[in-house]
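User: Predict the structure for this protein chain, please.
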Amino acid sequence: MKVLVTGASGFIGSALCRALVGAGHQVRAFYRPRPNHDIPLLLLGIDLEHCLGDITETGSLQEAVRGVEAVFHTAAKMGSRGKPEILYAITVGGTRNILHACLQAGVRRVVHTSSVAALGVPGWGKKPQPVPIDENHTWNVPPDWWRYGHAKYLAELEVQKAVACGLDVVILNPSVVMGAGDIHRINGDAIFKIASGRFPVSLPGGLNIVHIQDVVRGHLAALGLGRMGERYILAGENSTYLRFHQEIAGLVGVKPPVRVVPGAVIRALAGPISLAGRFLPISTSMLRRIGYFSYFDRQKSARNLCLPELLTAREAIQDSLNWYRDQNLI
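Assistant: Here is the predicted structure, written as structure tokens:
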């Protein structure tokens, strides 16, 4: 099959390109032009058709989707930093643009890479409980407290509009993705901060860690098995932040944190302490959500997409660490 991958130079997009080529597909890699016009690091050595453009520019998208049977839309702005209008223009407006281009070109299937962030926060406003949520959970957080999650939620609404117009789109919701290739340290930043030895305590609550290889497997499976208009959580191992940080410390070889800062204290001081984010093994945009358990249930995706047994969180962390070391980044 001839397929297009948007955001091909990113963490998920590049890993997906490699896997698609390995499976025998013809891949057109779509990404923004680079100042030096070099091939992005994560796409080196892959037999691809390179296509330069921007999802916020409709003209370049028309050319990108021409002649392809399927599109994997992984492009988005990561994190909540920067001006909100830029975040929404890329993540929401860009998604609207690519879906419109696919409708116009008669693309047979689109796999939209969303995020568990689009589901909101489990138990928001209540006493935090370590109870996993599934695909039926919906957005429940004030938008200005989590712009990234809100943008992902709005992008999924654009998907549903396209589905109503007859476009065959499947939604995938990865959790915290780790493994080789996280070049922008989106989720691997905790490794760097803990390795520095500057953070002797951990945080309350929990998260879900999924290996990049399992995320890629989910995308490949969704191409043929996903049902139009439905979302599928691509989650891995649920873990407390303390266990996650101790695992990192053990693999890096530094003293592990043993104490947890109370969540109520962190949330109350989220504004004043956000300036100290460089010392925390977590992004500052997550400070107000500290103490909650972002745990997820993957039964639907495992069953309907026929996914294999998962790699562990430890394997995901180790592969991230090995890659950073290979790149002389840590």
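The chain has eleven helices and twelve strands.
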